[in-house]
Amino acid sequence: GLAGLIGAGRTELARLLFGADRASSGEICIHDKLVKIKHPIDAIRAGIGLVPESRKEQGLFLQMAIQENITINAMPQLSLGGFLNRHNIQRAAQKQVDDLNIRLASLDRPVVSLSGGNQQKVVLARWLILKPIVLLLDEPTRGVDVGAKAEIYRIMSKLAETGVAILMISSELPEIVGMSDRILVMREGLIVAELPGRTTTQEEIMSYATDLTLHA
Predict the structure, then answer these.
(1) Is the pLDDT of residue 138 over 50?
(2) What is the pLDDT of residue 102?
(3) How high is the pLDDT of residue 163?
(4) Containing H/E element for 8?
(5) N or C: which end of the chain has fewer CB within 10 A?
(6) How confident is the model over 54-71, as pLDDT tens digits?
(7) Is the pTM higher than 0.90?
(8) Residues with Cβ within 8 Å of residue 85, at least 6 apart in sequence
(9) Strands (E), the chain
(10) Rounded to an integer, what distance in angstroms lies between the CA atom of residue 154 and that of residue 104?
(11) C-alpha distances in angstroms, 92 versus 11, 72, 75, 79?
């Protein structure tokens, strides 16, 4: 879990790891292997996925069909001889719908017709179809109802159990504490603390995030 106040640099860190922003220094390693990420395509090839903070502005093609939104990252794998295979696309999209319990009337309906929670699950499905190694989730439950939030937590827990590494950015401290194995706290662009998940209090996180001297 990645915690911190607005402007601490959490989203910028996720964008950097995904290759959307350029790094001036540092290294990224996956399974102890150095990877060079200068572009989102490099990140995707390395097994990194990003669910952005704003699904409507950065995560979805709102007027495109649900099916296309789910499968767009996997089009090369779902093609035959350079041509899109509609059967493969529909089958792959339906599997994600079933696995994530996405409630819809038809795969051909525009994704904008879905509720906020189901839209968020479509963004998740787009990455899960690629079987990522690392999943960056920026405010994954923002703007969804209680039921959808619980389902997203279930999906995250299941992914973690299968070995997917998740970096979750959240402004909701109960979410950070309840879902995280480790908590990193950022302040002014720097990681200032690493804390254990589930046993750390919200007050401890805020003391580091706001530079209070409770831990001198």
Answers:
(1) yes
(2) 97
(3) 95
(4) none
(5) C
(6) 999 999 999 999 999 999
(7) yes
(8) 78, 79
(9) 2-4, 28-30, 33-35, 48-51, 79-80, 83-84, 134-138, 165-169, 182-187, 190-196
(10) 19
(11) 30, 11, 10, 12
What single letter denotes the amino acid at residue 125?
A: A
What token pair was written down for 125? 């499905």
pLDDT at 82: 82
- Report pLDDT for 216: 47
By CB atoms closer than 10 A (0-12, 13-18, 19+), residue 90 is middle
Q: What are phi and psi of 16, to 5 degrees?
A: -65, -45
> If you average pLDDT over residues 72-94, what whole number do you get?
91
Helix axes 116-128, 86-100, angle to 10 degrees: 120
The residues, ordered by sequence, that sit 6+ positions from 36 with a Cβ below 8 Å of its Cβ are 28, 42
